[in-house]
Amino acid sequence: MKQLKIIISGGGTGGHIFPALSIADELMKRYPDAGILFVGASDRMEMEKVPAHGYKIIGLPVMGLPRKPGIRLLKFFLKLWKSQKKARSIVFDFRPDVAIGVGGFASGPLLRAAIRAKVPSLIQEQNSYAGITNKLLSKRVNRICVAYDKMDRFFPGNKIVLTGNPVRENLCNMAIDRNTACRFFNIDPSKQIILIIGGSLGALSINHSVLKNIQLIEESDVQVIWQTGNLYYQRIMNDLKDSVPENLHIYQFLTKMDYAYTAADLVISRAGAGTISELCVVGKPAILVPSPNVAEDHQTKNAAALAEKGAAVMIPDNEIEERLFREAYRLINEPYRLENISGECRKLAKPDATRLIVDQIEKLVNR
Protein backbone atom coordinates (compact mmCIF):
# COMPACT_ATOMS: atom_id res chain seq x y z
CA MET A 1 0.00 0.00 0.00
CA LYS A 2 1.34 3.43 -0.94
CA GLN A 3 2.04 6.01 1.75
CA LEU A 4 -1.02 8.00 2.81
CA LYS A 5 -0.43 11.75 2.29
CA ILE A 6 -2.53 14.42 4.00
CA ILE A 7 -2.51 18.22 3.94
CA ILE A 8 -3.98 20.12 6.89
CA SER A 9 -4.45 23.84 6.32
CA GLY A 10 -5.37 26.73 8.58
CA GLY A 11 -4.33 28.32 11.85
CA GLY A 12 -3.91 31.89 13.04
CA THR A 13 -4.96 31.22 16.63
CA GLY A 14 -4.68 28.39 19.13
CA GLY A 15 -8.39 27.75 18.49
CA HIS A 16 -7.53 26.55 14.98
CA ILE A 17 -4.06 25.11 15.61
CA PHE A 18 -4.80 22.77 18.54
CA PRO A 19 -7.73 21.00 16.77
CA ALA A 20 -5.54 20.61 13.68
CA LEU A 21 -2.78 19.02 15.75
CA SER A 22 -5.30 16.70 17.45
CA ILE A 23 -6.51 15.52 14.03
CA ALA A 24 -2.92 14.98 12.86
CA ASP A 25 -2.05 12.99 16.02
CA GLU A 26 -5.07 10.71 15.57
CA LEU A 27 -4.16 10.14 11.92
CA MET A 28 -0.61 9.20 12.93
CA LYS A 29 -1.97 6.71 15.49
CA ARG A 30 -3.89 4.95 12.74
CA TYR A 31 -1.32 5.39 9.97
CA PRO A 32 2.18 5.64 11.53
CA ASP A 33 3.79 5.87 8.08
CA ALA A 34 1.51 8.67 6.84
CA GLY A 35 2.99 11.86 5.43
CA ILE A 36 1.32 14.92 6.97
CA LEU A 37 2.01 18.44 5.73
CA PHE A 38 0.61 21.57 7.39
CA VAL A 39 0.00 24.77 5.44
CA GLY A 40 -0.43 27.98 7.45
CA ALA A 41 -0.07 31.75 7.22
CA SER A 42 3.62 32.65 7.14
CA ASP A 43 3.46 35.30 9.89
CA ARG A 44 1.12 33.55 12.33
CA MET A 45 1.68 31.38 15.39
CA GLU A 46 1.23 28.04 13.56
CA MET A 47 4.70 28.53 12.04
CA GLU A 48 6.11 28.04 15.55
CA LYS A 49 3.56 25.72 17.20
CA VAL A 50 3.31 23.08 14.44
CA PRO A 51 7.07 22.35 14.09
CA ALA A 52 7.33 22.28 17.90
CA HIS A 53 4.77 19.46 17.78
CA GLY A 54 6.88 17.54 15.26
CA TYR A 55 5.15 18.30 11.94
CA LYS A 56 6.38 20.07 8.81
CA ILE A 57 4.64 23.30 7.80
CA ILE A 58 4.79 25.60 4.77
CA GLY A 59 3.66 29.23 5.09
CA LEU A 60 1.52 31.23 2.66
CA PRO A 61 1.82 35.05 2.50
CA VAL A 62 -1.93 35.38 3.16
CA MET A 63 -3.61 37.96 5.43
CA GLY A 64 -7.08 38.70 6.75
CA LEU A 65 -9.57 40.76 4.75
CA PRO A 66 -9.38 44.43 5.93
CA ARG A 67 -12.65 45.88 7.18
CA LYS A 68 -12.16 49.23 5.41
CA PRO A 69 -11.09 50.09 1.85
CA GLY A 70 -7.57 51.45 1.38
CA ILE A 71 -4.01 50.38 0.70
CA ARG A 72 -4.38 47.34 2.94
CA LEU A 73 -7.15 46.05 0.69
CA LEU A 74 -4.79 46.17 -2.33
CA LYS A 75 -2.17 44.41 -0.23
CA PHE A 76 -4.75 41.75 0.70
CA PHE A 77 -5.56 40.91 -2.94
CA LEU A 78 -1.88 40.81 -3.92
CA LYS A 79 -1.09 38.43 -1.05
CA LEU A 80 -4.17 36.34 -1.88
CA TRP A 81 -3.03 35.97 -5.50
CA LYS A 82 0.48 34.94 -4.36
CA SER A 83 -0.99 32.52 -1.82
CA GLN A 84 -3.25 30.86 -4.37
CA LYS A 85 -0.32 30.44 -6.74
CA LYS A 86 1.86 28.93 -4.01
CA ALA A 87 -0.98 26.69 -2.78
CA ARG A 88 -1.39 25.22 -6.30
CA SER A 89 2.34 24.49 -6.35
CA ILE A 90 2.20 22.81 -2.91
CA VAL A 91 -0.70 20.56 -3.93
CA PHE A 92 1.02 19.66 -7.23
CA ASP A 93 4.32 18.79 -5.51
CA PHE A 94 2.93 16.97 -2.45
CA ARG A 95 0.06 15.14 -4.25
CA PRO A 96 -2.12 14.58 -1.17
CA ASP A 97 -4.78 11.87 -0.87
CA VAL A 98 -6.99 14.24 1.11
CA ALA A 99 -6.99 17.93 2.13
CA ILE A 100 -8.41 19.23 5.42
CA GLY A 101 -9.26 22.84 6.25
CA VAL A 102 -9.60 23.83 9.91
CA GLY A 103 -10.20 27.57 9.45
CA GLY A 104 -7.84 30.51 9.43
CA PHE A 105 -6.31 32.58 6.65
CA ALA A 106 -4.43 29.79 4.86
CA SER A 107 -7.36 27.40 4.71
CA GLY A 108 -9.11 29.09 1.77
CA PRO A 109 -6.29 29.19 -0.82
CA LEU A 110 -5.12 25.66 0.00
CA LEU A 111 -8.57 24.05 -0.18
CA ARG A 112 -9.34 25.88 -3.43
CA ALA A 113 -6.12 24.49 -4.90
CA ALA A 114 -6.93 20.98 -3.66
CA ILE A 115 -10.47 21.07 -5.04
CA ARG A 116 -9.16 22.30 -8.38
CA ALA A 117 -6.75 19.31 -8.42
CA LYS A 118 -9.69 16.98 -7.63
CA VAL A 119 -8.28 16.04 -4.22
CA PRO A 120 -11.00 14.85 -1.77
CA SER A 121 -11.50 17.70 0.71
CA LEU A 122 -13.01 18.20 4.15
CA ILE A 123 -13.85 21.30 6.20
CA GLN A 124 -13.84 21.25 9.99
CA GLU A 125 -16.12 24.16 10.97
CA GLN A 126 -15.66 24.94 14.65
CA ASN A 127 -18.16 27.77 15.17
CA SER A 128 -21.94 27.95 15.39
CA TYR A 129 -21.89 30.64 12.69
CA ALA A 130 -19.97 29.77 9.54
CA GLY A 131 -17.51 32.22 7.99
CA ILE A 132 -17.69 33.46 4.40
CA THR A 133 -14.78 31.34 3.13
CA ASN A 134 -16.21 28.09 4.46
CA LYS A 135 -19.67 28.92 3.12
CA LEU A 136 -18.19 29.43 -0.36
CA LEU A 137 -16.02 26.31 -0.16
CA SER A 138 -18.86 24.15 1.15
CA LYS A 139 -20.40 23.88 -2.31
CA ARG A 140 -17.28 22.11 -3.60
CA VAL A 141 -15.78 20.12 -0.69
CA ASN A 142 -16.80 16.52 -0.07
CA ARG A 143 -17.50 16.60 3.67
CA ILE A 144 -18.16 19.21 6.40
CA CYS A 145 -17.62 18.29 10.06
CA VAL A 146 -19.48 20.63 12.41
CA ALA A 147 -19.74 21.17 16.17
CA TYR A 148 -23.27 22.61 16.38
CA ASP A 149 -26.79 21.67 15.29
CA LYS A 150 -28.70 23.50 12.54
CA MET A 151 -25.62 24.17 10.37
CA ASP A 152 -27.64 23.32 7.25
CA ARG A 153 -28.57 27.02 7.15
CA PHE A 154 -24.96 27.59 5.96
CA PHE A 155 -23.94 24.32 4.29
CA PRO A 156 -25.47 21.64 2.02
CA GLY A 157 -27.21 19.27 4.44
CA ASN A 158 -26.07 16.10 2.65
CA LYS A 159 -22.39 16.95 3.35
CA ILE A 160 -22.73 17.74 7.07
CA VAL A 161 -21.59 15.39 9.84
CA LEU A 162 -22.05 16.46 13.48
CA THR A 163 -18.76 15.52 15.16
CA GLY A 164 -17.98 18.26 17.69
CA ASN A 165 -14.64 20.05 17.94
CA PRO A 166 -11.38 18.22 18.73
CA VAL A 167 -9.97 18.91 22.18
CA ARG A 168 -6.56 18.10 23.59
CA GLU A 169 -6.40 14.42 24.56
CA ASN A 170 -5.22 15.11 28.11
CA LEU A 171 -8.48 17.01 28.74
CA CYS A 172 -10.61 14.03 27.70
CA ASN A 173 -8.88 11.78 30.24
CA MET A 174 -8.07 14.07 33.14
CA ALA A 175 -6.58 11.93 35.90
CA ILE A 176 -5.33 14.68 38.25
CA ASP A 177 -7.06 15.35 41.56
CA ARG A 178 -7.77 18.84 42.85
CA ASN A 179 -5.09 18.67 45.57
CA THR A 180 -2.38 17.89 43.02
CA ALA A 181 -3.60 20.65 40.69
CA CYS A 182 -3.69 23.22 43.50
CA ARG A 183 -0.18 22.26 44.66
CA PHE A 184 1.06 22.92 41.12
CA PHE A 185 -0.25 26.51 41.39
CA ASN A 186 0.77 26.82 45.06
CA ILE A 187 -2.85 27.36 46.12
CA ASP A 188 -4.68 26.04 49.18
CA PRO A 189 -7.24 23.50 47.81
CA SER A 190 -9.77 24.55 50.47
CA LYS A 191 -10.00 28.00 48.80
CA GLN A 192 -12.38 28.83 45.95
CA ILE A 193 -10.58 29.39 42.64
CA ILE A 194 -11.42 31.46 39.55
CA LEU A 195 -9.49 30.77 36.34
CA ILE A 196 -9.22 33.66 33.84
CA ILE A 197 -8.11 32.84 30.28
CA GLY A 198 -8.20 35.03 27.19
CA GLY A 199 -6.70 32.78 24.55
CA SER A 200 -3.04 32.22 23.72
CA LEU A 201 -2.45 35.86 22.74
CA GLY A 202 -4.60 37.31 25.51
CA ALA A 203 -7.74 39.43 25.72
CA LEU A 204 -7.17 43.16 26.25
CA SER A 205 -10.60 44.02 27.69
CA ILE A 206 -10.62 41.07 30.12
CA ASN A 207 -7.10 41.98 31.28
CA HIS A 208 -8.19 45.59 31.68
CA SER A 209 -11.18 44.48 33.77
CA VAL A 210 -8.87 42.49 36.09
CA LEU A 211 -6.62 45.51 36.60
CA LYS A 212 -9.63 47.75 37.31
CA ASN A 213 -10.82 45.29 39.97
CA ILE A 214 -7.48 44.60 41.68
CA GLN A 215 -8.72 45.99 45.01
CA LEU A 216 -11.87 43.85 44.87
CA ILE A 217 -9.72 40.77 44.16
CA GLU A 218 -7.36 41.62 47.03
CA GLU A 219 -10.24 42.02 49.50
CA SER A 220 -11.72 38.66 48.52
CA ASP A 221 -10.64 35.28 49.87
CA VAL A 222 -11.10 33.77 46.40
CA GLN A 223 -7.88 32.74 44.59
CA VAL A 224 -7.48 33.87 40.97
CA ILE A 225 -5.33 32.17 38.32
CA TRP A 226 -4.88 34.70 35.52
CA GLN A 227 -3.44 33.91 32.08
CA THR A 228 -2.67 37.30 30.56
CA GLY A 229 -1.53 36.07 27.13
CA ASN A 230 1.80 36.68 25.41
CA LEU A 231 0.94 40.18 24.18
CA TYR A 232 0.13 41.71 27.56
CA TYR A 233 2.12 39.90 30.26
CA GLN A 234 5.16 42.20 30.47
CA ARG A 235 3.10 45.39 30.40
CA ILE A 236 0.81 44.08 33.17
CA MET A 237 3.74 43.06 35.36
CA ASN A 238 5.32 46.50 34.84
CA ASP A 239 2.04 48.21 35.78
CA LEU A 240 1.53 46.15 38.93
CA LYS A 241 5.21 46.11 39.98
CA ASP A 242 5.26 45.02 43.64
CA SER A 243 1.51 45.44 44.25
CA VAL A 244 0.31 41.99 43.10
CA PRO A 245 -2.23 40.65 45.64
CA GLU A 246 -1.23 37.36 47.29
CA ASN A 247 -4.36 35.66 45.98
CA LEU A 248 -3.68 36.66 42.34
CA HIS A 249 -1.48 34.16 40.46
CA ILE A 250 -0.34 35.65 37.14
CA TYR A 251 0.90 33.61 34.16
CA GLN A 252 1.84 34.60 30.63
CA PHE A 253 0.66 31.26 29.26
CA LEU A 254 -0.68 28.13 30.95
CA THR A 255 1.01 24.99 29.64
CA LYS A 256 -0.95 22.56 31.83
CA MET A 257 -4.58 23.35 31.09
CA ASP A 258 -5.68 20.03 32.61
CA TYR A 259 -4.26 21.22 35.96
CA ALA A 260 -5.86 24.66 35.55
CA TYR A 261 -9.32 23.29 34.77
CA THR A 262 -9.10 20.74 37.61
CA ALA A 263 -8.23 23.45 40.13
CA ALA A 264 -10.89 25.94 38.97
CA ASP A 265 -14.38 26.30 40.45
CA LEU A 266 -15.30 28.91 37.82
CA VAL A 267 -13.75 29.95 34.51
CA ILE A 268 -13.83 33.40 32.89
CA SER A 269 -13.04 33.16 29.21
CA ARG A 270 -13.49 34.37 25.66
CA ALA A 271 -15.94 32.31 23.60
CA GLY A 272 -13.73 30.76 20.97
CA ALA A 273 -15.04 27.45 19.65
CA GLY A 274 -12.05 25.46 20.92
CA THR A 275 -12.29 26.85 24.46
CA ILE A 276 -16.04 26.20 24.59
CA SER A 277 -15.49 22.59 23.50
CA GLU A 278 -12.89 22.17 26.24
CA LEU A 279 -15.19 23.67 28.88
CA CYS A 280 -17.95 21.23 27.90
CA VAL A 281 -15.63 18.21 28.00
CA VAL A 282 -14.26 19.11 31.45
CA GLY A 283 -17.70 20.30 32.62
CA LYS A 284 -16.58 23.63 34.06
CA PRO A 285 -19.07 26.45 34.73
CA ALA A 286 -17.99 29.59 32.90
CA ILE A 287 -18.66 33.26 32.34
CA LEU A 288 -18.12 33.82 28.62
CA VAL A 289 -17.08 37.24 27.30
CA PRO A 290 -17.32 37.10 23.49
CA SER A 291 -14.66 39.04 21.60
CA PRO A 292 -16.23 41.81 19.47
CA ASN A 293 -13.22 41.72 17.10
CA VAL A 294 -13.88 38.48 15.20
CA ALA A 295 -15.42 37.80 11.79
CA GLU A 296 -19.24 37.66 11.70
CA ASP A 297 -19.26 38.15 15.51
CA HIS A 298 -19.14 34.34 15.79
CA GLN A 299 -18.02 34.33 19.44
CA THR A 300 -21.27 35.98 20.52
CA LYS A 301 -23.19 33.30 18.65
CA ASN A 302 -21.04 30.55 20.21
CA ALA A 303 -21.63 31.92 23.72
CA ALA A 304 -25.35 32.44 23.12
CA ALA A 305 -25.69 28.80 22.03
CA LEU A 306 -24.49 27.76 25.52
CA ALA A 307 -26.22 30.51 27.51
CA GLU A 308 -29.61 29.64 25.99
CA LYS A 309 -29.23 26.10 27.33
CA GLY A 310 -28.12 27.26 30.80
CA ALA A 311 -24.62 25.87 30.11
CA ALA A 312 -22.78 29.19 30.67
CA VAL A 313 -23.28 32.84 31.63
CA MET A 314 -22.63 35.42 28.91
CA ILE A 315 -21.56 39.04 29.55
CA PRO A 316 -21.03 41.43 26.60
CA ASP A 317 -17.50 42.78 26.25
CA ASN A 318 -18.56 46.41 26.76
CA GLU A 319 -20.13 45.60 30.15
CA ILE A 320 -17.38 43.59 31.84
CA GLU A 321 -15.61 46.40 33.69
CA GLU A 322 -18.67 46.88 35.88
CA ARG A 323 -20.29 43.44 35.79
CA LEU A 324 -17.62 40.76 35.41
CA PHE A 325 -16.30 40.41 38.94
CA ARG A 326 -19.60 41.20 40.65
CA GLU A 327 -21.18 38.36 38.67
CA ALA A 328 -18.18 36.05 39.22
CA TYR A 329 -18.20 36.48 43.01
CA ARG A 330 -21.97 36.09 43.15
CA LEU A 331 -21.82 32.92 41.07
CA ILE A 332 -18.94 31.26 42.91
CA ASN A 333 -20.91 31.56 46.15
CA GLU A 334 -23.92 29.74 44.68
CA PRO A 335 -22.73 26.10 44.53
CA TYR A 336 -26.12 24.75 43.37
CA ARG A 337 -26.03 27.15 40.38
CA LEU A 338 -22.45 26.19 39.54
CA GLU A 339 -23.49 22.55 39.63
CA ASN A 340 -26.46 23.17 37.31
CA ILE A 341 -24.31 25.03 34.77
CA SER A 342 -21.69 22.27 34.93
CA GLY A 343 -24.34 19.60 34.30
CA GLU A 344 -25.81 21.41 31.28
CA CYS A 345 -22.31 22.03 29.96
CA ARG A 346 -21.41 18.32 30.11
CA LYS A 347 -24.54 17.45 28.09
CA LEU A 348 -23.03 19.37 25.16
CA ALA A 349 -19.64 17.64 25.34
CA LYS A 350 -18.37 15.59 22.41
CA PRO A 351 -15.17 13.94 23.69
CA ASP A 352 -14.98 11.62 20.64
CA ALA A 353 -14.83 14.50 18.14
CA THR A 354 -11.29 13.85 16.92
CA ARG A 355 -12.00 10.16 16.30
CA LEU A 356 -15.23 10.95 14.44
CA ILE A 357 -13.51 13.52 12.20
CA VAL A 358 -10.72 11.09 11.31
CA ASP A 359 -13.37 8.44 10.55
CA GLN A 360 -14.74 10.84 7.94
CA ILE A 361 -11.25 11.49 6.55
CA GLU A 362 -10.75 7.74 6.21
CA LYS A 363 -14.01 7.40 4.28
CA LEU A 364 -12.85 10.05 1.79
CA VAL A 365 -9.49 8.32 1.34
CA ASN A 366 -11.01 4.85 0.91
CA ARG A 367 -13.58 6.17 -1.53
Describe this structure in words.
With 367 residues, this protein is α/β, with parallel strands linked by helices. The protein is 45% helix and 15% strand. It has helices at residues 14-30, 46-52, 71-94, 107-116, 132-137, 169-172, 178-184, 204-212, 214-219, 233-240, 257-263, 273-282, 298-307, 320-332, 335-347, 353-366, and strands at 5-9, 35-41, 56-60, 98-101, 121-125, 143-146, 160-162, 193-197, 223-227, 248-251, 266-269, 286-288, 313-314. Strands 3-2-1-4-5-6-7 form a seven-stranded parallel sheet, sandwiched between helices. It has a six-stranded parallel sheet with strand order 10-9-8-11-12-13, sandwiched between helices. Helix 7 crosses helix 11, helix 8 packs across helix 14 and helix 12 (273-282) packs across helix 15. The radius of gyration is 21 Å and the shape is globular. The two termini are 15 Å apart. It has two domains: 5-167 and 351-366, Glycogen Phosphorylase B (Rossmann fold), CATH 3.40.50.2000; 170-347, Glycogen Phosphorylase B (Rossmann fold), CATH 3.40.50.2000. The longest helix has 24 residues, at 71-94. Helix 4 links the parallel strand 4 and strand 5.
